[in-house]
Amino acid sequence: MVSASTTDPHPAIRVRGLVTRLGGQTIHDGLDLDVHRGEILGLVGGSGSGKSVLLRTLIGLLRPAAGQIRIHDQSVDALRQGGGLERRIGVLFQHGALYSSLTITENVALALIEHAGLTRAEAEDLARVKLALAGLDPAAGPRYPAELSGGMVKRAALARALSLCPDVLFLDEPTAGLDPISAGGFDRLLVTLRDALNLTVFLVTHDLDTLYATCDRVAVLAHQRVLATGTLEQVSAIDDDWVRAYFHGARGRAARSTQENR
Amino acid sequence: MIQRPVKGIRPSVADPGYLRCRHGAAGPEVLVGGDWTLAHYRTVLRQVEQTRLDGEPRVDLGALERLDTAGATLLARLLGPARVEALARTAPELSAERRNLLQAVAAASERARATPEPTREPYFFGRLTIGLGAQISHAGQQLARAIAFTGLVLAAFAASALRPWRWRPAAVSRQLQHTALEALPIVALLTFAVGAVIAVLGITVLGRFGAGIFTVDLVAYAFLREFGVVLTAILLAGRSASAFTAQIGSMKANEEIDAMRAQGLSPVEMLVIPRVVALLIAVPVLSFVAVVCGLAGGGLVTLLNVDVPAGRIISLYSDISLRHYLAGLAKAPVFAFVIAIIGCLEGLKCSASAQSVGTHTTSAVVQSIFWVIILNAVAALIYVEIGW
């Protein structure tokens, strides 16, 4: 088993002693986690184990009851209060959360206009490049989110997450609801972008194929804390009921064998 | 140089990106240096726009500090994607990460540039004509749909009317609670207030002729024939038509309507008929309450402002023939049916988004108020002709 506190002195994200409570219920109790620079870390855990809550806490949408969260050695609280958190992190929400009254290009351009002081024309120029980076056909730019397929919505949302050139990317179930081909395409895109833009990626997922195809390390969330982090082999070898059922169940075996046959 | 303040610039920022052209020993050279990042986008963009490159100068990226996708996009704009791509492969001073970044952005810029924005829309007058035509054809389709739906509901009504075991008293009584009982206080209060206002008007106008006492008749005719049922119908159009659309629309968005059909249940029978029946009961009952409260409000104001005993006001009320009340009441089922049909149909028209539920709710309220007022005007004309 690999412990959470590794020797990396300057991780991209460092969480120490995190306690979160929602409506009187303790979701995380003394959670520690490091995400190294330039890696893709996959967070897995059973339903209701608090994966999405952890993601929302990391990006500052929920306030922890105790503990500290640092992104690139700065506390999230300070970054949030006028420290420019929005330029350091990009977030892809589970269903894309694209603004339905704006076109795809405007969705990406909005933050560029509001935060980077660009004019509308400049921002839309740059937005088209970001859309192309996310692998979207430029013809989709003038369309509205409701007119796009699920896979295209995810790509557009990824382009929006990348609009302010962040160093850290948070993804909540990026491949949920996609067909296997779109999901595979998204996995490859994620790895390509990580390599090209030198991103650190924190990925919440249920999708074993995504886990095998993209993640450098995996963290298992269970019993209100991070049970283990490490490579897939290391994590899948640990002795826990849920981990065994997850990685060594029929779906886990299938995902691993496709990965090995590649 | 005027630049809008930019939040969150890192303190360690070096010079904004810069660009110098010079003539070196081996021909023209472009020196690219400083921070080419989003924070300096406009500064760098201005320089890129002002620079005209002649031929293919040598590019020196040695002094480049930070580079992000925004900066790389500008570089692609300056040199052209193909040149940046070549540069990423050959320039010796680049790190591996930077090579990857430049290659990815060069490819993306190429693709973004390949497809120009779609063609302009037609000129103003053409757009106007197209819009008008589209609206007329849309209105025609909606009307046809409403008529078809009315037929469907009437057929379902007839089918279940003969089979009492298919009636749904529980659903009807729950709808009655929402549409009638919970609307009772607001209907009573508003009609009382409107009755009082009409009495004030009557006293002002009729009082000049010394006929202030006939304010009572004005209020009575107004409420018995028109306002009792019309005010009730308008209130229920705002309250219940919107509720029907929102309830059925959110079920539609959640695919519950499809689930019902798949299980062989009829949404018209289960959802629409109970609501129609509930409103058919609620509107007449509530309009009776409205009439009573309107008369009370008007009577009270007359009593306070005109010097007559209360008994005289009551006897004036009781002299009015019952047929005026029946003329008003006859309209109640029509209004009830129209409101319920529009509310339910708009709900069933919703698509699977929250936005469409909102749009259709607005549309249900507007349409049902519109039709209540139009039908009331038509009824008034008919009553005049047949002498009611």
The SS-based structural class of chain A is alpha/beta
**Protein chain pair with the most extensive contact, residues per chain:** A-B, 37 and 36 residues
**Largest sheet report of chain B:** 3 strands, mixed
CATH topology of chain A: the name is Rossmann fold
Strand content of chain A: 15-25%
Number of domains of chain B: 2
Biggest β-sheet: strands ordered side by side in the sheet of chain A: 6-7-8-3-9-10
* Beta-strand content bin of chain B: 5-15%
Cα-based radius of gyration of chain B, to the nearest Å: 36 Å
- Arithmetic mean of pLDDT of chain B: 87
The coarse silhouette of chain A is: globular
Order of helices and strands of chain B: EEHEHHHHHHHHHHHHH
Radius of gyration of chain A, Cα only, in angstroms? 18 Å
Q: Which class best fits the helix and strand makeup of chain B?
A: mainly alpha
Largest sheet of chain A: 6 strands, mixed
Low-confidence stretches of chain A: 1-6
Helical region count of chain B? Answer: 14
CATH architecture of chain A: 3-Layer(aba) Sandwich
CATH classification class of chain A? Alpha Beta
Nearest-integer average pLDDT of chain A: 85
Please give a quick description of this structure.
Chain A is globular.
Topology overview:
The complex is a heterodimer of chains A (262) and B (388).
Chain A (H helix, E strand, L loop, with lengths): L12 E10 L2 E11 L4 E6 L5 H8 L7 E6 L2 E2 H5 L4 H4 E4 L11 H12 L4 H14 L16 H12 L6 E5 L7 H18 L2 E5 L3 H7 L2 E6 L2 E6 L1 H5 L4 H8 L1 H12 L1
Parallel strand pairs in A: 3-8, 3-9, 6-7, 7-8
Antiparallel strand pairs in A: 1-2, 1-4, 4-5, 9-10
Chain B lengths: L17 E7 L2 E10 L4 H10 L7 E10 L1 H11 L1 H10 L5 H19 L9 H38 L7 H13 L2 H24 L7 H39 L2 H7 L4 H39 L4 H10 L2 H8 L2 H18 L4 H33 L2
Helix pairs in contact in B: 1-2, 2-3, 2-4, 3-4, 5-10, 6-10, 7-8, 7-10, 8-10, 8-12, 8-13, 8-14, 10-11, 10-13, 13-14
